[in-house]
Amino acid sequence: MADKGGDFFILNVPVGTYTLEVSCVGYQSKQIQNVIIEIDKTTRLSLVLSETVIEIEPIIVIRERPFLQKEEVSAIYIVRREEIAYMPIDYALGIVAFQPSVVRFSNAIHVRGGRATEVLYMIDNVSIIDPQTGDMAIHLSKGIIDEVIFFPGSFDAEYGRAMSGVINMITTRPLDQFRPQLYGKTEKIMPYYYDFGYENYQSSIHVPLARQLRGFVSIDLMHADDWDPKLFILPHKQRDDYSLYGKLLFTPLSNMTVTLSGAQSRSQFDRYDTRWKFIVDNYRSDLRQGNLQALNISYLPNSMSLFNATLSRLYTRRKYGVRQSGSYGLFDDFSFVDYTTLRWSSGGFKNAYGVSYPDFYIIGDYPEYQDKTSQIYKITASTDLHLSNYYEIKAGLEYVFFDFENFAYFVSDTAYQLIDEYQYRPKEHSFFVQHNLDYKIFYIKIGGRFDYFSAIIDTLESNTIFSPRVGFSCMITDKLLLRINYGQYVQPPLYDQMYGYYGLLPFPEYITDVPIIGNPTLVPEKTKSYEIGILGELSHNLAATINAYYKDVSDLVGTRLIVATPHDYYSYFNVEYANIKGIETVLEFHNAIFTGKFSYTLSYARGTSSYAEEYTDTNFIPPATDYYLDFDQRHRIFLQGIINTPWQTKLHLFAYFGNGFPYTPPGPEGEYEGRNIEQLPFQRQIDCVLSRSFKIGRISLEATIEILNLLDARYEISPLLPFDSDVHMWEFSDYISITDEYYHPAADLNHDGLITPYEYFVVYKEINRESIDWVNCYTAPRRLRIGVTIHY
């Protein structure tokens, strides 16, 4: 219902594309087609009705999505269903991989120079992050996603527990008509060296159960013989995943919507490490299970007010250790060997080369077993009030209760073990309020968020932090938009870093190999972010965006050595910082033949630590100054587009070009000259998807050919270490006779019963080359997958 000035609001419209009809007695009706509704955005329509004295057909207007939207006071990228369907990815996690703010490093997503754990992943506004480990609790198929809202670095006060970015995945809304779908994709048609055993099958169905009740169910199955492909297929890298998702939509009243959704996933996979190649079955395997239940109620008392309440439970279980040998079916969970039988791992000379080499294990097992569970109960309530045509206020509160359980068994040495068993129940509360002013050419957002974190340890104080957020935009002309944003963001440390092995202090004197000890006194990490952007519509089919950002990150978690009796150990502290800056440029263009997006990013990410455990994983002494972080990538180019070819065939292109990542070269005598002073070779990859649609009666079919790494470019992603030059003849002086317990015929090259220093040197160089992890230093070759989708 419009007011006297003809203005109207429609709140709580689900994400999607709609046709809006406007009518009034005495006026000709008008239909506006292709009205796109997106989450957290206002869709503005301006129309005029013509007077008429007789009833005539309505005017139909096809609306084009505007490029400039002034409520976007910071960068936001939206990936829609029609793009997602053809992306050469399998999980929703990878949907943002082609956005300009993103760096993919070591299978992780880094946003604007932040650590991988600084990104918040959500499904329908519910977090799916395990706060113990920082991992995603559930993995779902991209087929259930309608659109992904990606905030890279700056976001509204309603989002907490994130410092680098927010990725909100909006799932499919159940339809009011029966609609099944089947999908399958495989690469098993490829020759041996190009076949990594990948298969993926999906099925979904929309079911109208009643006039006011609709449902949607989806299942996804995936298998791979090598789940992280590099130069060629490797042993002990099998993976089997499945996921289930369901949603019920109930509308008991015209102004009330009740949504009940649930998800469950299971992922299990083996790992490969070159150091374990002689006894690879004794290396680590992982089992990860998760499920989510969420109840959401939306109530619209009038056209100017909206109330939302959500109750959710997230559960995740993470186990790893040495699994029982044998084959497993797709739905069979890994079973692990009895952790009390795990043996201390060590090297020796009883290998194929007959010489002892410290980087190869020949006896023993992976020295850890862990069974960790997290339950997160969350209640959120929010309101959206339009107090006038110009002024809107949003407010909400959140209560979170955690239940963490952990059992960890660590083989400290050949004689003793450590057992870390605990249960903690921390809690977090938050409250936010945000004022939005929409007046003429200006849009202003002023908000703040209060966060309360409690570790529930009697001797520790809780943390309460206020985070202001301010954003401003101005329509300089109808084709040019300026926006400025400032925000402070906080994130509590991972609870693993607070609780792990903390209860075992002080360690007994007989323990020799001590893991990293948790520190419950850790405080939240903090980021201050500044952003300025200019958006311009250069022509009818060409638009450009330029974003510049600057971030100061403090109180980052790192590790330091504690000198103690009877043993020194490492623990976590808020001692690291980072400074990040960059410029993002995006060009979007479309015509009848080609529609696409080109982006270029220039970024600098410097800091004192790339990840929390860095100084326990390397031999480096913490530097006095910062350095370029492991995931710093100076230049990055993405090209994504669709070419419309004849015969209902489309070619989807995805191209990536960028600098290699920095690395630390070894100096003389195994020392290191400087941190990340060298750079790996230039990176490039082009993927494409060719799709063709068919129709047979009421059944629609679509065939796809997906080619990954079209040019078969295999570039280096990690340095080839160690080098032959590290091995010198003068280091070997011993003679080993056949009567010596360390004699091995494989090292006796002339089989005369005596291993000379020269023979030992020659064989040692061979095993040194064997230890070079060259397979994992290069990207995977070209891969081809065939897929078929059937719609009814």
From TrEMBL:
<dbReference type="GO" id="GO:0044718">
    <property type="term" value="P:siderophore transmembrane transport"/>
</dbReference>
<dbReference type="InterPro" id="IPR000531">
    <property type="entry name" value="Beta-barrel_TonB"/>
</dbReference>
<dbReference type="InterPro" id="IPR013784">
    <property type="entry name" value="Carb-bd-like_fold"/>
</dbReference>
<feature type="domain" description="TonB-dependent receptor-like beta-barrel">
    <location>
        <begin position="268"/>
        <end position="664"/>
    </location>
</feature>
<dbReference type="GO" id="GO:0030246">
    <property type="term" value="F:carbohydrate binding"/>
</dbReference>
<keyword id="KW-0732">Signal</keyword>
<dbReference type="InterPro" id="IPR036942">
    <property type="entry name" value="Beta-barrel_TonB_sf"/>
</dbReference>
<protein>
    <recommendedName>
        <fullName>TonB-dependent receptor-like beta-barrel domain-containing protein</fullName>
    </recommendedName>
</protein>
<dbReference type="InterPro" id="IPR018247">
    <property type="entry name" value="EF_Hand_1_Ca_BS"/>
</dbReference>
<keyword id="KW-0472">Membrane</keyword>
<keyword id="KW-1134">Transmembrane beta strand</keyword>
<dbReference type="InterPro" id="IPR037066">
    <property type="entry name" value="Plug_dom_sf"/>
</dbReference>
<dbReference type="GO" id="GO:0015344">
    <property type="term" value="F:siderophore uptake transmembrane transporter activity"/>
</dbReference>
<keyword id="KW-0812">Transmembrane</keyword>
<dbReference type="InterPro" id="IPR039426">
    <property type="entry name" value="TonB-dep_rcpt-like"/>
</dbReference>
<dbReference type="Pfam" id="PF00593">
    <property type="entry name" value="TonB_dep_Rec_b-barrel"/>
</dbReference>
<comment type="similarity">
    <text>Belongs to the TonB-dependent receptor family.</text>
</comment>
<dbReference type="GO" id="GO:0009279">
    <property type="term" value="C:cell outer membrane"/>
</dbReference>
<keyword id="KW-0798">TonB box</keyword>
<keyword id="KW-0675">Receptor</keyword>
<keyword id="KW-0813">Transport</keyword>
<keyword id="KW-0998">Cell outer membrane</keyword>
